[in-house]
Design brief:
473 residues; alpha+beta; 12 strands
Amino acid sequence: MKHFKLGFDFLGSIRFYIFLMVFFAGLIPSLFLTSSVLGGYERRTVSSETIRITAQSKLLANRLVADGFFENNSDVSYDQIELLASYYEGRIILIDTDYEIVYDSYGIDEGKTVVSEKVFECMRGLDVSNYDSANGYIEVCVPVTENDEVIGVIAVSKSSSGISADMDYIKQNAFVMQFSIMILVIFIAIYGSGKLMKPFGVMSESIDRIQTDYENEQLSVLNYTETKEISKAFNAMLSRIKTLDDSRQEFVSNVSHELKTPLTSMKVLADSLLDQEDVPNELYKEFMTDIAEEIDRENKIINDLLSLVKLDKSQGVLNITQVNVNELMELTLKRLRPIAGKKNIEIVYETLRPVSAEIDEVKMALVFTNLVENAIKYNVEDGWVHVSLNADHQFFYVTVEDGGIGIPEESVEHIFERFYRADKSHSREIGGTGLGLAIVRNAVLMHRGAIQVNSTEGKGSTFSLRVPLTYAS
């Protein structure tokens, strides 16, 4: 069964198809050339023989006219006829104008009447020839003319056995040559297909090694342009896998740390209460308040993680409906204004026109909430947040601008990464999880949109969002 499978795999391999192409590319022209040469030889030989017989027959016709054969049956003419018949080892028939055979070198049909299309044509003064390859003879008919008047016909039949013998000899030699060419072509096809496919075998071995140690291995098969391109694309993919793997490991580490930190804090607070007797109500209440805050923080992290996981697993799975974006934004800001009020932050909302788009309302609300909530959290006392909504014939645009603490220049390109924080201590203070902007980016990309940020540390940040009005799946 294993051998059968290997054989079947070979028949479906590129190497097998290369072998077939080389084999037939060498064999078919050889067969065609042999057939063409044999056919050409036969045609040229028959043509040459026909011309020669015709010329000799015309010379005989002239001699018959000179001797007055059709009038007095000259013995000299008989000698010429027999000589010609002996030379060609064929049959010569003389026919008069009454279509009667007056002479047959075989002595079979003398005195008989001929009814033949070829003879009729000759009687009209035409030379007629025919090659019967099936029965193996060449037939030539020439008119005998005197004073431009046909007085008889000479019909010569000659065996083509000599031509057939030559053809058989040539065919035998051609077969030997074809067999030799076939052996040579098979050898070239086997060697050539193996040589051409060798780099792919090296590539397969390299990939096997990479599977066990992809950190330190790269694909480098540079024999052909195609293998260079494959190596280049594979290494780019491998680099991407390494990056994703590093990101995954960092993500797992960050998740573990973020989930463990509130639990550790709660454990410390709880142990402190348990280790003390007669804990004052004020201290008990303070510790329980801290524990409640840590529980809220843990819950926030878990909720953000769940939101991110849902976005990751539902790529392309959106509940698309026609949504009034103006109303969605107003509802989002209404929920967030109390949070802004705690820091006396003014939220200014500007919309230039009614906007309706095909979006997932829940996911887009998550985007708006995270952007505006971040603008509030990373702001200053008595600060401001400016939100604008606009649209053209193809996209709608949302801008969230704040006059807050801003983002350090070296951190701007990383802020959409999971758990990344530009200022970890400040984020801890305001309760951030480092997942909000990762959620925003994933949701925007799912809508075939784009998001960018401009920020100056100490002066504030501006997030600009562009989303198609019509969702293209």
